[in-house]
Design brief:
about 80 residues; 5-stranded mixed β-sheet; YggU-like_sf; UPF0235 protein HH308_07285; DUF167
């Protein structure tokens, strides 16, 4: 198994577009979710959307930084 990778994503909670993963002009990921940014609901939704987008199990995606920020870092792997 390969070493875990940390990726930075911008989160857009309460979005009508969601769930969706888009790539910004600079190559970073933008994740749109319908869940609100309260009680960690958006964070959990982003982890699930990322796992599906990257083709990994949901247990392989973990939030490592930015729990209360729109820019978050997730460990994948």
């Amino acid at each position: 198994m390969s070493d875990p990778t940390v990726i930075a994503v911008t989160v857009k909670p309460n979005s009508r577009k969601g769930p969706l993963v888009a790539t910004a002009d600079d190559g970073t990921l933008i994740v749109y979710v319908r869940e609100p940014a309260t009680e960690g609901k958006a964070n959990k939704a982003v982890a699930l959307v990322l796992a599906k987008h990257l083709g990994v199990s949901k247990s392989s995606v973990a939030l490592v930084a930015g729990a209360t920020s729109r820019i978050k870092r997730f460990r994948v792997g």
